Amino acid sequence: MKMNSGIKIAAAVFLTMVLYAGNALADTGKPTELNANTVEYDTSSGVITATGNVVMIQESSRISGAQAVYNSKTSEGHITGNVVADKENLHMTANEVFTQGSNMLIANGNVVAHQLDKTISGPRLEYNSDTNYALMPNSGTIVTAEGTITGNRLEAYLQDNHFIAVGNVHITSQTRNIDAYSNNADYYGNDNNKVILTGNAVAMQDNNTLRGEKLTLYLNDTGQAAVK
Prior knowledge:
Layout lengths: L4 H16 L11 E4 L2 E5 L4 E12 L2 E11 L4 E12 L2 E11 L3 E12 L2 E11 L4 E4 L3 E4 L4 E4 L1 E5 L4 E12 L4 E11 L5 E12 L2 E12 L5 E3 L1
């Protein structure tokens, strides 16, 4: 369907906020396509509502769902119904996605987000693009090339490759043959490449088992874990 300029701008901004998680406002000069069974745009309130087989496309960005609502004045958006979002190397699915302001994205319901070698999944994902920080407050799983982390609450500082897990923590690494449990865990990738387990910590590698209130595993390049 063809859009007037007001609908086109609102759709472009919402699409970019979801797929860039607010890193930049939409370039309204780029072609934007909005397809839906019905589209309504209230120029006085700034609210655009698209219902039924909603698909928004801008260059390599695409998001689809059953219904989308975006307020151009408050920068708040909401898309629901088997949401699928793709942008370059990012692929995300969820029951619904909210945007709050220009930097906050919240995905609810069966959330799965893939980007490069990382997969984040859980019932709820909150992401702040200003800090590149992701929170899964109601349990979740992070899968990387190094292994898998699960917990009741997960935090991810994605730029620093730093993950924090709280409550019923379970860490596995097939590449290093490690299986670990604890109340809490701090994983540092990049240069440090270590994990700190605290509270009823247990770490197993090969035929060795270590227990303690605090275990620090230094993961070396050979696949072995040195313990402090």
